[in-house]
Amino acid sequence: MKIINGGVCAAKGFKASGIHCGIRRNRQKRDLSLIVSETPASAAAVYTTNLVKGAPLTVTKQNISNGIAQAVICNSGNANTCNENGIEIAEKMCGLVQEHTGIPAGDVIVASTGVIGQPLDITPIANGMHELVSALGDNSGYAAEGIMTTDTVKKEIAVEFELGGKACRIGGIAKGSGMIHPNMATMLVFITSDVNISPEMLQKALSTDIADTFNMISIDGDTSTNDMVTVLANAQAGNARITDEGEDFKIFMKALNTVNVYLSRMIAGDGEGATKLLECKVSGARDAETAKTVAKSVICSSLTKAAMFGADANWGRVLCAIGYSGAQVDVGKISCAFSSKSGSITVCKNGAGVEFSEELAKKILLEKEIEILIELHDGGFDATAWGCDLTYDYVRINGDYRT
Amino acid sequence: MKIINGGVCAAKGFKASGIHCGIRRNRQKRDLSLIVSETPASAAAVYTTNLVKGAPLTVTKQNISNGIAQAVICNSGNANTCNENGIEIAEKMCGLVQEHTGIPAGDVIVASTGVIGQPLDITPIANGMHELVSALGDNSGYAAEGIMTTDTVKKEIAVEFELGGKACRIGGIAKGSGMIHPNMATMLVFITSDVNISPEMLQKALSTDIADTFNMISIDGDTSTNDMVTVLANAQAGNARITDEGEDFKIFMKALNTVNVYLSRMIAGDGEGATKLLECKVSGARDAETAKTVAKSVICSSLTKAAMFGADANWGRVLCAIGYSGAQVDVGKISCAFSSKSGSITVCKNGAGVEFSEELAKKILLEKEIEILIELHDGGFDATAWGCDLTYDYVRINGDYRT
Q1: pLDDT tens digits, A19-78
Q2: Which of A184, A316, A402 faces B116 most closely, judged by CB atoms?
Q3: What is the value of pTM for the model shown?
Q4: N or C: which end of chain B has fewer CB within 10 A?
Q5: Which of A184, A394, A403 faces B316 most closely, judged by CB atoms?
Q6: Is the domain of B251 the same as that of B359?
Q7: What is the count of structural domains for chain B?
Q8: Quick one: three-class SS letters along chain B?
């Protein structure tokens, strides 16, 4: 398997575009993106578990209930959530795709991200459709920009691998946290592939993988109303159709995981106000759930996140977060270390502090990517979670007036 | 019932003191407190649920297992947690109380707050005991200061009420969040009373009340390893002993609740870096658990807390936090309002935004005490939770180097 260029356009038969249509005031910011497949594709999606759900999610769920889709349309600048006419507007967006591309409205995935509780005006979207469709091409980067809010970098990746001698590709774009009118961190991920796979197996692959990737990210513990990850697989690679959990499914899963881990790390490292990517690796847990619970609790701890911002090896906060996680652990067996490209340092053994060089610890924690390594010495399971530090800028971005 | 002066010394037969003994470097800061009752008292306590527990909690639990205690000793500056000799040091602190007051070591409640993972030196405590015991008197305020870390105000209250014609009192001191060597927010509350009540009923009163008071506070979602609330009731008021849930128990519960709500609000409003007290009142819930879950989720939302810091009526974040709380609610029925002494404004009805004056909303949210009012229109249960805003200073306090 190798990393390649092209993002969501790397897979055969996919085109994308992203334009500024006028939902966002800043004309330098793209705010409308489109991804289309030449042919109908197997489709799968996972959605936020928030009871307050964006209207686009309801429409998308309905549209891909038959396992087929052919296009993705997504705007930034307005989440189209908690509005009286949200469903109507989301359906209109799908209708506009049909009008301008011929792809049936019922085969369109629709998404929105931005402020909630304000009506989304369809006018700029309708006016921008001609330009959006005309611009379709090898433009994954523009599509990635069109879904950004206060993300500071666009997020895209693609991989190539072989199934039965056929070259196959999976590519994805994602947005993380932050908005011009800050409201909440919506995570959106759109993945394309030319693999031939049944909608059932595609959904199985996605649902299985996100438990270890996107669901292991936390920026601030606030689960958005509009989170969504979708995959389209249009079969153009020409591989034998994947319809069960055989060897090909495993290869596909591995490629999908590579894409999702990459995007998860990018989203975490570009969290609102973040200066560092935090990666918490837990090993030696009695079961997989324990490993995950511990890793997520550490990554979510405001005190740990603030300590990492200050490059402070304050491991007591890590132990504290393990202790209140709800996971069953033997505190007296826990070891903890911090690691980065500047080195690695053990700060706690058997649940108690050990002497360590504060100078080396500081050097390690001043890097941009920090590993928090936790060994529970209680079994053979492990897990990784991703997050970011808590900074002045997080408060600034989210404490600013909307107006 | 009336509010009176005197804190933990308001109840008959209690004396207190607080001194600087040298655990903390700043000689202006008291770091050792003592509360004693003339006579043995019924004792009750509740402890952190964190699996990583401070050594003093283990010793206290053992000492009051018979329902009797007569003194409280507490130091700040070091949590005596995750040390190899923590139990030994905590027991030595109880032994020092016995040596200097004659109160049996087994009748002493011991507590510590401060940095974890560093050994606590018994020397300054031993050297300070003579001064500490000599200073015992009507000094609740000094005792309240001796348990402070980065708290900005001392926290004490007392109430007087009648039981069967006898004047009774309950008083308390508390500490909230923050440390000179910041580590984690430890909440400590020590309550004294001259009411005659059995240890069993005292524990029942405390355990019942904290579910609606101290357990409804959140500063930053990090549950400390050293949280503890204790009550001593020495029977000196001369009321008929409370041994069941009759009318006197109800009056005692109401007085205890008044003390605990007052201290809860003080702790929340003085959270690390806080500029505002947030009070989330949920009504119309289908059951008590739902009301509590919703109120705590809103109070814990980093995005809501940051919006309150910015005086931004960003109600979408409140709805978002309700949605991911895990509570069963009907989103389409939710109303939300913000209120303070400058007025009240409804921002959401039936789960969707309503037009409101941004100017009035800003005026309301610029006050120091903000109410977030949520009506679920789904039943007859309510709950209140307390928290604070998320500010630059929270990040500064917790991002600073320990060294």
Answers
A1: 999 999 888 899 999 999 999 999 999 887 777 888 999 999 999 999 999 999 999 999
A2: A316
A3: 0.81
A4: C
A5: A184
A6: no
A7: 2
A8: CEEECCHHHCCCCEEEEEECCCCCCCCCCCCEEEEEEEEEEEEEEEECCCCCCCHHHHHHHHHCCCCEEEEEEEEEEECCCCCCCHHHHHHHHHHHHHHHHCCCHHHEEEEEEEECCCCCCCHHHHHHHHHHHHCCEECHHHHHHHCCCCCCCCEEEEEEEEECCEEEEEEEEEECCCCCCCCCCCCEEEEEECCCECHHHHHHHHHHHHCCCHHHECCCCCCCCCCEEEEEECCCCCCCCECCCCHHHHHHHHHHHHHHHHHHHHHHHCCCCCCCEEEEEEEEECCHHHHHHHHHHHHHCHHHHHHHHCCCCCHHHHHHHHHCCCCCCCHHHCEEEEEECCEEEEEEECCEECCCCHHHHHHHHCCCEEEEEEECCCCCEEEEEEEECCCHHHHHHHHCCCC
